[in-house]
Write a structure and sequence with these properties.
Number of domains: 2
Order of helices and strands: HHHHEHEEEEEHHEHHEHEEEEHEEE
CATH topology of the largest domain: Major capsid protein gp5 fold
Subcellular location: Virion
Main location: virion
Organism: Pseudonocardia abyssalis
Largest sheet: 7 strands, mixed
Protein name: Phage major capsid protein
CATH superfamily of the largest domain: Major capsid protein gp5
């Protein structure tokens, strides 16, 4: 008898006993129990034979000289595939419900995106800016207010006292506070409407719908965040890295070697040690500065072959690395002292950006259904502020 036949015979005995009991009979009799146990022995033996045959078949498949090993477990891409389906159709499915459960605020009807798509969106956001990648970055799971204490005790010093004496002066420590919230940034299409994608594109299986959506929505969020990281007002938006700071002023329309030296030495050596300092300004300013030479005729800007293709700027200016961020205004000979055009110093110590991990994408297949389009929008949360303005300096123009 086969395994299936044995299982059917066992079930028949149980059914027979159940029918007997239901009609007032004795239920499972001794004779039925003996038949059941005898069939059990045969079932165990049949299964053992079946396992041996399966192992033998696996041995024959293996090529000579190779070990037969189990394949590596396949990564679970269920959520990514479910989310891709959601992007194409806008319709819920059983797997995507888990994405909603991961988010604490989905009043818009969106879903927290899975890690794979979130990374694509974040990569697009990194394509803009520059400052955001070299300052201190904090990522939190929620957007609760994030306070921390601050202190500036650099003006206080100790003193010499006579034997048996005590201090005559001093000052108590004064602690301040700073905090980070989480401003909500949204992105959609033009004209205050979501990004619209035609059904024809979405129905083409070869079309990378995730690439398009992550590119456009990520870029749109990134553009405004990049501006705020540099020059945000701090009122209803993040406080920019150069906002409200009095910059080190250039002495003339043409920047000189001595001007750049003053910028460098405006930073306390405590922050300059360890290679932590860097420049940050726009590509327009870099183009200007690349034309500057020292007394020996050598360019002040030196190319860094390792980073030329991977980092905007990709070089050093007077020994310090350069970060390009197009949100800075570019330096020209008309830039005046009231305009900050760059920063220099330990930017990771001086400025902090806080991001909330959840990125939500909202898909609406209904509003533009008559036009054969699906609408997309996304939102992310971020805040940033100056945390130690002694660690870096803004750089401004000149007074004519």
């Amino acid at each position: 008898m086969t395994i299936d036949e044995l299982l059917a015979a066992l079930q028949a005995i149980i059914d027979e006993a159940a029918a007997s009991e239901a009609s007032g009979g004795p239920g499972l009799t001794d004779e039925q129990a003996e038949r059941y146990e005898a069939l059990e022995v045969k079932l165990v033996a049949a299964r053992k034979v079946d396992e041996v045959q399966k192992r033998h078949a696996a041995y024959k498949v293996a090529t000579p000289g190779q070990f037969v090993t189990g394949s590596a477990p396949k990564a679970d891409d269920t959520l990514e595939r479910a989310f891709s389906s959601y992007l194409r159709t806008g319709k819920d499915n059983a797997d995507i419900v888990e994405l909603r459960a991961q988010s604490t605020s989905n009043t818009e009807g969106g879903y927290t995106v899975p890690e794979g798509f979130r990374q694509k969106l974040v990569d697009r956001m990194k394509a803009f800016g520059g400052v955001g990648e070299v300052v201190e970055n904090i990522t939190t799971d929620s957007g609760n207010n994030l306070p921390w204490p601050t202190i500036d005790d650099t003006a206080n010093v100790g003193e010499i006292v006579a034997e048996g004496g005590t201090f005559a002066s001093g000052a108590d420590m004064v602690l301040g506070t700073a905090d980070l919230g989480a401003y909500k940034y949204m992105a959609g299409g033009g004209g205050n409407v979501p990004l619209r994608v035609s059904w024809e594109l979405l129905q083409d299986s070869a079309f990378d719908v995730e690439g398009l959506i992550s590119s456009k929505l990520g870029e749109r969020i990134a553009r405004i965040q990049a501006v705020h990281l540099v020059s945000g007002t701090g009122s209803g938006q993040p406080l920019g890295i150069q906002t409200g700071l009095t910059g080190v002023e250039m002495t003339g329309a043409a920047i000189t070697y001595d001007d750049l030296l003053r910028v460098i030495h405006s930073i306390d050596p405590a922050y300059r040690q360890g290679g932590r300092c860097r420049w940050a300004f726009s590509d327009t300013s870099l183009a200007y500065l690349r034309g500057m030479k020292d007394a020996a005729g050598d360019p002040l800007w030196r190319a860094d072959s390792e980073n030329m293709g991977t980092e905007l700027g990709g070089g050093t200016l007077m020994g310090y690395p350069v970060t390009i961020d197009q949100a800075f205004s570019g330096y020209t000979t008309a830039t005046n002292a009231a305009t900050n055009w760059g920063v220099f110093g330990d930017l990771a110590e001086g400025y902090v950006r806080r991001q909330v991990k959840d990125i939500t994408v909202v898909v609406n297949p209904w509003t533009r259904a008559a036009n054969g389009q699906v609408e997309y929008s996304a939102w992310a949360r971020m805040d940033a502020t100056q945390q130690n303005v002694n660690a870096y300096r803004a750089i401004s123009g000149y007074t004519a």
